[in-house]
Amino acid sequence: MNNTVFAMRMYHAFMRVVDNQGMLAAVNAQPLTDLFRLDGRVALITGAAGAFGRAIALGFASVGARVFLTDLNADGLEESVAHVRDAGGTCASAPGDSGSNSDVQAVFERLDREFGQIDILVNNAGRNPMQGRPEEFPLDIWESVLRTNLTGYFLFARAAGARMIARGEGGAIVNVSSIASASSLGRGNLAYATSKSGVNQLTRELAVEWARHRVRVNAIQPCQFLNAGWRSMVGDPNRAPLVERVLSGIPIGRMGEPEEIVGPVLFLVSDAASMVTGVLLPVDGGNLALNPTGTLSAE
Ligand SMILES: NC(=O)c1ccc[n+]([C@@H]2O[C@H](COP(=O)([O-])OP(=O)(O)OC[C@H]3O[C@@H](n4cnc5c(N)ncnc54)[C@H](O)[C@@H]3O)[C@@H](O)[C@H]2O)c1
After folding, report:
1. I need a labelling partner for 279 at 20 to 30 A (CA). Which of 185, 220, 236, 263 fits?
2. Positions of E strands within 124-177
3. Which residues are annotated as catalytic?
4. What angle is formed at CA 230 by the lines to CA 60 and CA 177, rounded to 5 degrees?
5. Which of 212, 115, 209, 85 is nearest to 158 (CA)?
6. Which residues are registered as beta bridge partners of 121?
7. What distance in angstroms lies between residue 47's CA and the mean position of ligand 1's atoms?
8. pLDDT, tens digit (0-9, with 9 covering 90-100), for 243-278
9. Atom 38 (ligand 1) nearest CA
10. Residue 69's closest CA among 30, 115, 102?
C-alpha cells in the first residue's frame, strides 16, 4: 500500500468516526420517545387503502410525518386520505398499479410535486389469489402475483432509493413480507410465498448496497392479521377448521389487529433503529419461533 492510499484510508476511517459522533450526539440530545417522532419527514406508503396501509398512514401522521398514499383501489385510497386528514395529518395521494413501471413513475412525479422529498418508503401493496395444486398453478396468476408483490416492491424501492441517494440525507425503507416467506403454508400459497421470500432477499441486497448512503432497508414478517379477508373468514363457520389451524400456530393465541403492525414498522423507520438494516423482523405472535412439532399447552 503506498502512502497516498494509506492516508486516504485513514481519512475515511476518521470521517466515519466523526459521522458516528454526530449521530450519537443527535441521538443523545433528545428524550428517548422523540426518537420515534417523524417530524419533517415524508413517508410513501403503498397498499394504503388496505388494513395495514391505512393503519400505518394514520400512525405515521400522528407522529409528525407527511404521508403520501397510493393504491390500485382509488375509492379506498380516498377513504384513507380522508381518515388521515380528519385526524389532523398532512396527506396527499395518487392511485396506481404498483406492478406497472409507468404508474410508479406517475406516483413519484406527483409526490415530487406535492412534497419535493421522500425519507421513508413502506412497500406494502400485496395480493394473494390462492390457487390449487402447484402442478396446476396458472401461469397468469403466478406472473401477476410476482409482478405486484415483488417487482412492485423493486420499482418503488428503486425510485425511492434514487431520490434518497441524490438528496444525501439517508432514508428508511420497510418491505412488508410475511411468515409465508420463511416456511411453507401449502394450501395454494405457492406464488405468494415465493414472492415474499424474494422480498426478503430484495431487502438484504438493498440494505447492503445502500448502507453507504445511510438508506436503511428492513422487512417485517407478519402472521395472520385481521384484514377484511381474514375478518370474513373468522366469522364464517365453513372456514372454522382453517381459522383453528392458523390459531394453533400462533403462540400468542390470536390473529393480529392491523394497528399492531404500526409500532414495529415505526421502530424500523425511526431514529431508534439507526443501526438496524437488513433485518427481517417477525411480527407474528411467536409463529416463527414455534417448531411445527411443538405444543402450545403444558402437555
Ligand atoms: N393481513 C395479513 O394477514 C398479512 C400477513 C402477512 C403479510 N401481509 C402483507 O401485508 C400487506 C398488506 O396486507 P393487508 O392485510 O393490509 O391486505 P389488504 O388486502 O387489506 O390491503 C392490500 C392493499 O394492496 C392493494 N393492492 C393490491 N394489488 C395492488 C397493485 N397491483 N397495485 C397497488 N395496490 C395493490 C389492495 O388494493 C389493498 O388495498 C400485503 O403485502 C400482505 O401480503 C398481510
Report:
1. 185
2. 171-176
3. 192
4. 50
5. 209
6. 44, 173
7. 6
8. 999 999 999 999 999 999 999 999 999 999 999 999
9. 50
10. 115
61-82 pLDDT per residue, tens: 999 999 999 999 999 999 999 9
How far, in Å, CA of 284 to CA of 281, rounded?
Answer: 9
pLDDT digit string (tens) for 137-176?
A: 999 999 999 999 999 999 999 999 999 999 999 999 999 9
Q: Point out which residues pair with 220 in neighbouring strands.
A: 176, 281
d(CA 197, ligand 1 centre) in Å: 16
Would you state the pLDDT for residue 20?
65
- Structural domains of the chain, ranges and CATH numbers in brackets: 37-282 (3.40.50.720)
- Kindly report the three-state secondary structure assignment for every residue of 70-84: ECCCHHHHHHHHHHH
- Look up cell 388496505; give the residue: 50
Angle between helices 51-62 and 262-269 (to 10 degrees): 60
Ligand 1 mean position to 126 CA, how many Å? Answer: 4
Q: Kindly report the pTM of this predicted structure.
A: 0.93
Q: How far apart are CA 229 and CA 262, in angstroms?
A: 19
